[in-house]
Structures are given as C-alpha cells and as structure tokens.
C-alpha cells in the first residue's frame, strides 16, 4: 500500500511538472493584438497601455493595441468574441460590455460563455463627491439631508446604466433614500454640472474629480469599494460611513476568445502577475486611484460572474433602461 501511494505521488508530481512545462512552452512567434473596445485615453485604455509594452517585452513579440470603441464597448467585445482562439488576440474587458449592457440590451455575444478570462488587472473605485454648497461633510449627513427632502437632491452620472448610475441606485437602495438621477453623455459633463451647482453630487473615478477635490471645489465623502485605498487612507468607504453592504467598483481585465489554448492563457496570466508587481506600474495605478489586483484567471472569472448576477438584479429592481 505504501509503495502504491509513493507511485501515485510520483505520477502526480510528474503530471504537474509536465503540465507546467507545457504552459511555459507557449511562446508567440508573431505580434499579439490587444483589442480594446474603448476609445483612446479612456480609463480602461490607459490601463491596458500601461501593461502592453511590458507584456511585449516578456513575450518577445509586439503587443499592438487596437482600439475599437462603440456601443458602450459592445462593438469591440463582439469583434473579440469572433476572433481566432489561437492566443494572438487578447481582449480588454471591463464591466459595461460584460456585466451591465447584456441586462439592458441584446448583445451579439454570450458574456459568460464566449470568452476565457486571463487576468484581473485592477479595480477602479468610485468616489462620492458633492458640491460645497451641500450641507453635508459625511455620508451620514448626506443621508439625513436626503431623507429630509425626498427626491430633491440630485445625483449625476455618465449615463443610464453606467457604473455611476448603478452606484447611485445601490446607495438609494441600501440607505433607503430617494435621489433624482440626472444622466449625462459622459463623466466630464456630469462633474462640470456638479461644480457649477446644477447637480448636487456624483460617483466618479478619481481622474475627473481629483484636482477639484484638492482645490476645495468638491467635497469627497467616501469611496465605493469595500476597502480603503492605499494612497487615500483617511477616506472612508461608503459602507464604513454608514451604508451596510455597499460595495461597487469597476473591474478592468484581460480575456481571450473561448477555446484559446490553456498554455497561452497561463503564460499571459503569469507574465501579467509579474508586471503588476513592478513598483513603477503599481505607483502609476495608485496615482490613478486604482487598486491593483492580479491573480489567476479564476479570480477574473469569479468577478465577472458575481458582477453579472448582482448588477442584473440591481438593474431589474431599479427598472433601469437605456431609454430613461
């Protein structure tokens, strides 16, 4: 019996070694395309460009960023789903085309079936900011003000069904308050109207609001994710500030078309993990207000499945439509 156990153990180790060697053997022999379904200079695009050159160095082949924006990321994501599953087309992913838009419109792909997750790069927290004229310096004070005048306080977003809109709906649901949602065609416009006093508050990524917070033109109350971020340790989360079970952020990650060889998936995932540990990469992402994540492909798969389910329920409960 002991010999049998030893034989099984040796066989298992041999399989593990062989499997690891098989993954390490995948080496591209021509350029890799990184299909980005968002416009150049968008937050997701900036994230992918931060890692693309370093990934090219690691793989020994150019990684060519190919921006294909349109329809909230649906156009480029569809293109990615139809690309050859040979390891030479990576797809830049984020919440809208994978976990939000499929609940708002018919999309020409199956977000949970047509892709193979590779790596969860970063999570982007949303920052709850209010105009200085609002008599609230904490989330609890804001909730009290909203309850004192139901439906009177306004909250801007970059559009119906956007991450900021979902954050607003989640805040209303968890805090039992009624805010008037005001959709815009982009986050910059939403922030400008909060600055101008035409709207009371918004959830935004850090970039559009950072300088205004520093200048005292906007008051930062809290961040949307479950944990504080390293470079702003004194800013509480919305949950800490009095709204239980509040946790919402935007993921940015890499995927392959479904059926891509496991060797390519594991090689790219391993190289991305190394890149995310580089001090200059971490520093850049922290400056953006992002949280570096990394980890195996399964981590991204879990995030996509989890967000797909909970955002679908939130959209249904709040009766969100693109035509509102």
Main β sheet profile? 6 strands, mixed
What do we call the CATH topology of the largest domain?
Answer: D-Maltodextrin-Binding Protein, domain 2
Tell me, rounded to a whole number, the average pLDDT: 92
The share of residues in helices is 40-55%
- Please report the total strand number as a whole number: 11
Could you say which structural class the secondary elements and strand pairing correspond to?
alpha/beta
* Spatial strand arrangement across the major sheet: 2-1-3-10-4-11
Shape: globular
Q: How are helices and strands ordered from N to C?
A: HEHEHEHEEHEHEHEHEEHHEH
User: What is the level 1 CATH name of the largest domain?
Assistant: Alpha Beta
Distance between the termini: 69 Å
How many helices? The count is: 11
CATH-scheme architecture of the largest domain: 3-Layer(aba) Sandwich
Total domain count: 2
Strand content: 15-25%
Low-confidence stretches: 1-23
Radius of gyration equals 22 Å
CATH superfamily of the largest domain: Bordetella uptake gene, domain 1
In short:
The chain is of the alpha/beta class and 324 residues long. It has helices at residues 2-24, 43-59, 74-81, 95-100, 139-148, 163-175, 187-195, 210-214, 262-276, 279-288, 297-318; strands at 32-36, 63-67, 89-94, 115-125, 127-130, 154-157, 180-183, 201-204, 219-223, 249-257, 291-292.
Structure description:
There is one protein chain. The protein has helices at residues 2-24, 43-59, 74-81, 95-100, 139-148, 163-175, 187-195, 210-214, 262-276, 279-288, 297-318; strands spanning 32-36, 63-67, 89-94, 115-125, 127-130, 154-157, 180-183, 201-204, 219-223, 249-257, 291-292. The protein has two domains: 33-123 and 249-318, Bordetella uptake gene, domain 1 (D-Maltodextrin-Binding Protein, domain 2), CATH 3.40.190; 127-223, D-Maltodextrin-Binding Protein, domain 2 (3-Layer(aba) Sandwich). With 324 residues, the chain is of the alpha/beta class. It contains eleven helices and eleven strands. A six-stranded mixed sheet has the order 2-1-3-10-4-11, with helices on both faces. A five-stranded mixed sheet has the order 7-6-8-5-9.
